[in-house]
Amino acid sequence: MTTPSSVHAPVRATPPPVTGYSGTLIAACSAVFVSQAISALPASLNGLFQSSLGISGIQLTWITAAFMVTVVVFEFTFGVLGDMYGRKKLVLGGAALALVGSTVSALAPTVEVVWVGAAINGLGAGAMFPGSLSLVAAITHSADQRAKAIAMWAGALSLACAAGPLAGGILSSGGNWRLSYWFLAVIAVVALLLTAFLAVESSAPEGRKLDVPGQLAFAAGLLLVLYGVIQGAEDGWGSPRIIGAFVLGAVLLGLFVLIENRVASPILHLGLFRDRAFASTALVAVLGMFTFLGFGYGVSMWLGPVQHMPPIMIALAFVIVQAPTFVLVPLLSRLLRVVSPMWLLAGGWALMGIGTLMFSRLDVTHHSFAPLVVPCLLVGFGFALALNSMTAVALNNVPMHLVGMGSATINMIRDLGFALGPALVGSIALGHAARAFDRNLGTAGLSPADLQAAQQVNQLAGPLAVSGLPQGAPGSLASGIALQSLGDGFSRGLLVAAIAAFAAAVLTVVLMAGVTVHDPDPEALFDPLHPAVDSTPVVDLPIPVHPDQPGFERGTRHDHA
Questions:
Q1: How far is the C-alpha of 397 from the C-alpha of 2, rounded, in Å?
Q2: Neighbouring-strand partners of residue 337
Q3: Do residues 239 and 203 both lie within one domain?
Q4: Per residue in 376-413, pLDDT tens?
Q5: pLDDT digits (tens, 9 = 90+) for 205-221
Q6: Cβ 299 vs Cβ 161: under 8 Å
Q7: Which domain does 237 fall in, by range?
Q8: How far is CA 526 from CA 141, 371, 459, 493, 522, in A?
Q9: Residue 52 domain flag
Q10: Distance set, CA 335 to CA 81, 136, 391, 450 (Å)
Q11: In the structure, what pLDDT confidence band is assigned to residue 551 with cuts at 50, 70 and 90?
Q12: In terms of domains, do 121 and 247 share one?
């Protein structure tokens, strides 16, 4: 592909020996594990958040949104900082922020402080997501090695999707959700230490500098749009504040595109999107990842605040979602070499769509876990196929000297879909539930006292609070109406998520038709100005021996220069 760049040098033909390959891969996997665990862990705690903090559905949504919004907004800049000052330093800084954010959340006395902790965690994950993927790219110099390393990185991410909620479910089994955040603080320290001692530093500062106007326009524009999406259900989609947020956000994002076309060192080279595979993958990734986290948010809310199942049951659902990844990990790197990414992506989105559609048809009054198993497995298989494929397509079409930007771009696109999932599904579900509850409450035949009590609880915290009223409490006779309204609302939100996945599958086939599987572009495997890493690790682990490993010849490691 052709990408704007000030770097023009011949590509080195022979892979250099790799110093710190194993340690860097371990550190990168630990960093992405922590980042995704922070994102996934609250899924099993929504019921406890709602009951212990007495908060509404929208306030619950903001716990997830505060994390995802900060991840998405600052990933571009973090990618540039990694290129300029070092990807290892970026991951170390992200792990430190994750430690701070998790500690703030563990000590939070109110939901507003939980939001602050989530936002700090989002900054940390926003640094570690692109930083860890850039570390992987910088130490992989052959197609087979790149595919295997990406499969391991994606496997660590998927493992965290299951381990985060599972840890939350186990640690909160006694009703204390704060222990789960102390667990996050501990694993952030582990990732920090592994990175400090095992990872090698890499950077590519030539021609890179901070694009402050672009970052400000992008951050403000995206924040306004996401605020409108999340808050629209509560304030009303036609309210001046929500309309103003959408309009001003769109204007600022348009200004961002203009800035990136004119500045000497943009945070996003729009030339990346001239590559059809990269551009197509970026578009469908937003839709597909919206489905995935919309599904996950739906599962956590359906089983938690709506059906009031214990956190460990919610965690079990996420373990089932991620189970297919562990089955596919040995096959994914081979699939990436022999199967067109078009079919892997389209198949992944289609499986996710089928699973989400099946979930949307469930009866909320049927308190059984069994009907969720097949939808969770289908979504899990689809996610495993899609995540590896879209990550490989992105990295294999980005020059090595822009790998920080490329990693940040594909992570930002994925996380934008992640941010939209809870925001849109939550807005659709809770907005519909509120309207349905108001409509049905007046015809329920409740006594004036029960009617008034239910209306007061609904005004304070919405149908979620009404459905959670203990039996015999004032207004509790309306809990069945609230439950049915919430079930109908989440069914509608999940239907939208399923449609998005099917649209992603169709668009993948249409847009990527004719794109064949190929090895990474040569310039994606080597940075001619940085043929070796910037430093050696404090502890250099043995490199696993395999035929395509650079630095090996007939199973013997080369001496480092």
A1: 9
A2: none
A3: no
A4: 999 999 988 887 777 666 656 555 555 556 666 777 77
A5: 766 677 889 889 988 99
A6: no
A7: 211-264
A8: 7, 49, 60, 44, 7
A9: yes
A10: 33, 19, 13, 60
A11: very low
A12: no
Domain assignment present for 459: no
CA distance 540 to 88: 15
Per the structure, the count of domains in the chain is 2
Nearest to 560 by CA among 12, 142, 21, 85: 21
CB 43 within 8 A of CB 425: no
Distance (Å, whole) CA 54 – CA 38 = 22
pLDDT band (50, 70, 90) for residue 533 = low
CB count in 10 Å sphere of residue 112: 13
pLDDT at 240 exceeding the cut of 80: yes
The secondary structure of residue 547, as a DSSP letter, is T
pLDDT of amino acid 371: 92
Q: Are residues 259 and 269 in the same domain?
A: no
| Nearest CA-CA partner of 81 in 268, 209, 261 | 209
- The three-state DSSP-derived secondary structure of 490-502 is HHHHHHHHHHHHH
The model's confidence at residue 102, banded by pLDDT at 50, 70 and 90, is very high
Report d(CA 222, CA 259) in Å as an integer. Answer: 15
Half-sphere exposure of 201 (CA within 13 A, CB side): 16
In the DSSP assignment, the letter for residue 520 is P
Average pLDDT of the residues in 353-380: 94
The DSSP secondary structure of 71-108, one letter per residue, reads HHHHHHHHHHHHHHH-HHHHHHHHHHHHHHHHHHHHT-
Instruction: Compute the C-alpha angle 309/488/425, nearest 5°.
Output: 80
pTM of the model: 0.75
Residue given tokens 């979620």 in the structure block: 464
Q: Of 228, 247, 264, which residue constitutes the final position of a domain?
A: 264
Nearest to 475 by CA among 449, 447, 443, 453: 453
Q: Which long-range contacts link 113-116 to residues 24+ away (Cβ below 8 Å)? A: 114/49, 114/53, 114/63, 115/62, 115/63, 115/66, 116/66
Residue 532 is predicted with a pLDDT of: 55
- Over the stretch 415-443, which tens digit does the pLDDT of each residue have? 788 888 888 898 889 888 988 988 888 77
- The two tokens of residue 226 are 């996401």
What are the residues whose beta carbons fall under 8 Å from the beta carbon of 434, sequence distance 6 or more? 233, 458, 462, 463, 485
DSSP string covering 444-470? S---HHHHHHHHHHHHHH-HHHHHTPP
Radius of gyration of the chain (CA): 24
Mean pLDDT of the chain: 82
Round to whole Å and give the CA distance between 505 and 385.
Answer: 12
| H or E segment and range at residue 556 | strand 556-557
**pLDDT, tens only, 273-322:** 777 777 888 889 899 999 998 999 999 899 988 998 888 888 899 899 98
Q: Where are the alpha helices (DSSP H) in 172-239?
A: 178-198, 212-235
- pLDDT higher than 80, residue 39: yes
Distance CA 542, CA 23 (A): 8
313 and 232 housed in the same domain:
no
Same structural domain, 377 and 243: no
